[in-house]
Amino acid sequence: MNMKYLLIAGALMSHIVMAEEAEIANPVTENGVVKIEWQDPKSYRDLKTSNEIQSRFENRFFETITKNLNKEAEKTLKPNQKLIMQVSDVDLAGDMRPTFGATMGDLRVVKDLYPPRMTFTYQILEGEQVVIAGDEKLMDMNFMSNIRRINERPFDAETNMLKHWLKKTVEPQLLAPVSQ
Questions:
Q1: Strands across the sheet with 28-31, in order?
Q2: Angle, CA 125 vertex, CA 140 and CA 73 arms, to 5°
Q3: Residues facing 138 on adjacent strands
Q4: What are the boundaries of each domain within the chain?
Q5: If exposure means fewest CB atoms within 10 Å of the residue's CB, which of 30, 43, 105, 161 is most exposed?
């Protein structure tokens, strides 16, 4: 009798896990003045987790990056402006390495050799009007010197790369006088 209940419970759990793994094709995250569409995350170069359900890891990454980018964008953008992004590729800092049974999952090795990268298009909107638009292929070869302490904050290297982009690329364009 107990075996029957265990089999039923196991079948139910497998359906729950499968439902967890089912995700939206192009998830969208929004926080304050930032809205990001994550285009086809399954095709990203490296958005892999070592020890949690992949869909949860992806959602945590999407939400964290959007929230962190919003903090910086609120300082950079003028009132009534909004940053809209369509991300087409992500390569997290580090590289996944198999542990060959030493642990339950793989291990992310973070070295200078494996910088964070992100490819996206963006628009800065003021109301409904596009003020700035562009395509970016970011890569931060200097990310190791910008990380405060390893594992202090999740996705710190990727966040710093986007902050630097806002400061060096977007902010000067917003401050430039409008030519007639």
A1: 28-31, 34-38, 81-91, 117-126, 129-139
A2: 45
A3: 118
A4: 22-171
A5: 43
How distant, in Å, are the alpha carbons of 27, 64, 88 from that of 37? Answer: 6, 14, 9
| The 3-state secondary structure of 59-82, one letter per residue | HHHHHHHHHHHHHHHHHHCCCCEE
pLDDT one digit per residue (tens) for the chain, 180 residues? 566 655 565 555 554 444 444 556 899 999 999 999 999 999 999 999 878 899 999 999 999 999 999 999 999 999 999 999 999 999 999 988 877 765 666 788 888 899 999 999 999 999 999 999 999 999 999 988 876 655 568 899 999 999 999 999 999 998 877 654
Q: What is the dihedral of CA 19, 116, 87, 43, to 10 degrees?
A: -50
